[in-house]
Amino acid sequence: LAKTTQPISMDSYEGQEVNITCSHNNIATNDYITWYQQFPSQGPRFIIQGYKTKVTNEVASLFIPADRKSSTLSLPRVSLSDTAVYYCLVGILNDYKLSFGAGTTVTVRA
Amino acid sequence: DAGVTQSPTHLIKTRGQQVTLRCSPKSGHDTVSWYQQALGQGPQFIFQYYEEEERQRGNFPDRFSGHQFPNYSSELNVNALLLGDSALYLCASSLVGTHRDFGAGTRLSVL
Known about the structure:
The complex is a heterodimer of chains A (110) and B (111). By secondary structure, chain A is mainly β.
């Protein structure tokens, strides 16, 4: 399983863009990159998933360079409600046995 | 359309006791996975059930067992509880090949 490294914490202010980079140097050919968001005392929530280049949905964008050894989750114009832990997972598509790392705690301030 | 529901929301047990946690998957989902999340850590995979059978298992002892019923709901059983079993237990449901939808979890405290 590809090991991931992401920052422990990040601080931001309302209205700013937040970019969280995840390193996964030993990503395999069949691996996908998936991001989840988790609020305190709730289960993780799927945000976005991608294989290469750029993926965008209504809440975030995922940028994956050509070598796929890292990826960046971009949250545009964050609000206080975006304060949460964000997890990067790398593995075969929707591999349910993937465990989550420690994640990145994003704190958005007014 | 209800999402993944778990019961109870909170539970207090003492060491050595046994506990059963319950999960109803999101409508239309047929696969259920269970995770343990200790304070300050990410969820760790316990096992997955599909077609009423355990299909995959993480690095958890046999004290952790489960069951899936014909209606796709599932139970997680933990025997001989240890203090270290205190955690948030999360259930996730999915269709094979799709991402997981998680429930809000059951907070288990072992005293």
